Amino acid sequence: MQAVFFDMDGLLVDSERVWLRIETEVMARLGAEWTPEHQVHLVGGSMERTVDYMLAVSGADVPPRTVREWMVTGMVSRLTAGVHVMPGASELLDALRAEGVPVGLVTSSLKDIADAVLKSVGRDRFDVVVTADDVTRTKPDPEPYLTAARLLGVQPVRCVVLEDSPNGVAAATAAGCAVVAVPSLLPIEPAPGRLVVSSLTEVGVADLRDLLPS
């Protein structure tokens, strides 16, 4: 096992509820309502996709860059105040670091939002961080995970990805990585090279290694 890559929203930190709150506030400014059902359509997606969807649902005549600014400002403000690390994530990070396994954070969120999370989680716990600002195509495209592997000089087929969304799982699988899925808002089915669990408390470093081809 040459590296392990963590997704951020919903996998490393419990930020989906923060996204829901900010999306609800921004939609109110756009003169429309927002529900958890709307949020489900955007799990694991990019900021551009979120903004486009919100404008389509609201029908508001507001520039996309303005909505993006409202979203980023709101998220950074809330996340800087502190985030809740998901059960088992911190322990798994520490175990990987103790064994000298390189670790990366790979997220579809923008750099400003990732930086706000890392102020709480610790930037020094990751050997590489790849955000939406570092790629031309976000998940479900494999580019984010291929980029992380390239930056670390490792082979994707010898890497394990931890994800919570179908988009993220699709990106990791397309990149050639093994996957541990911890479904959050949408179901994810088991598959070859993929372990589905209800929490990261259920997996250790040995379980990650077992997913890789011998």
From TrEMBL:
Protein's UniProt keywords contain Cytoplasm: no
Pfam families, alphabetized: HAD_2
InterPro entries tied to this protein: HAD-like_sf, HAD-SF_hydro_IA, HAD_2, HAD_sf, PGP-like_dom2
A GO MF label: hydrolase activity
The entry's keywords: Hydrolase
Keyword Transferase among record annotations: no
NCBIfam families in the record: HAD-SF-IA-v1, HAD-SF-IA-v3
Protein name (Swiss-Prot/TrEMBL): HAD superfamily hydrolase (TIGR01509 family)
